[in-house]
Design a protein that fits this description.
By secondary structure, this protein is α/β, with parallel strands linked by helices. It has 10 helices and 8 strands. Helices cover 40% and strands 19% of the residues. The structure holds pyridoxal-5'-phosphate.
Length: 216
């Protein structure tokens, strides 16, 4: 599949994040020239290097696990951080956003897969985070929604049920903490192998790498 076909297969209202990790700037530029503006990276240093080399109207999304001590490198330019998985990390993002006199958009990452290895919050942890005074005093972050990665399996029913779980977390948080906050609207779920299923189950932001750029 080429970029045009993939982007045409994504309904209006669903944002395509082109996941360019491990791919050189030249390949990213080719996709950029076809109209793509949102790119996802999972490593801080790689994202910084590409930010410096590529057009400044690219929206850079950090999709991978983020270490607290690296937030400062991306704080000046990152558009959306997908993988907030602790209050400590969020506090550091708030601090670095303040230093840069901006507000940084963030998603809460949930652990929805069966695999042990994937990062992410439980719904209880997310609720504790959102109820905390520390969070409520943060003025330089905006929580815009949720992110999750489904199990790596061919079992479609399993994957679908995990997307539904993330959907239910989104609704719960929307009702309990963001009822009057129009920024809370993103459900980042779905990758090359499962993005159509994810969209069927309510995704409005898909992160697609290998399908666009080829295998890594
Ligand atoms: C690599 C990655 C993707 C894209 O995976 P593909 O299968 O290549 O589409 C999506 N989300 C995250 C968090 C990733 O690390």
């Amino acid at each position: 599949m080429n970029y045009k076909d993939i982007s045409a297969s994504i309904p209006t209202g669903v944002t395509l994040v082109a996941v360019s990790k491990t791919k050189p700037a030249g390949e990213i530029l080719k996709i950029y020239e076809q109209g793509q503006r949102v790119f996802g990276e999972n490593k801080v240093q790689e994202m910084v290097d590409k930010y410096e080399q590529l057009p400044k109207n690219i929206e850079w999304h950090l999709i991978g696990h983020l270490q607290t001590n690296k937030v400062k490198y991306i704080a000046p330019f990152v558009t959306l951080i997908h993988a907030i998985d602790s209050l400590k990390l969020l506090a550091e993002v708030n601090k670095q956003a303040k230093k840069n006199q901006r507000t940084i958009n963030c998603l809460l990452q949930f652990h929805i897969a069966q695999e042990e290895t994937k990062f992410g919050l439980s719904i209880e942890e997310a609720q504790a985070l959102l109820a905390s005074e520390t969070y409520q005093e943060m003025e330089h972050i905006q929580i815009c929604g949720v992110m999750g990665m489904a199990s790596f399996t061919t079992d479609q029913e399993q994957v679908a049920s995990e997307f539904e779980l993330l959907n239910s977390y989104f609704k719960q948080l929307k009702n309990n903490y963001f009822a009057n906050d129009s920024h809370f609207q993103i459900k980042s779920m779905g990758m090359s192998g499962d993005y159509q299923l994810a969209i069927e189950h309510g995704s409005n932001m898909v992160r697609i790498g290998s399908l666009i750029f080829g295998a890594r």
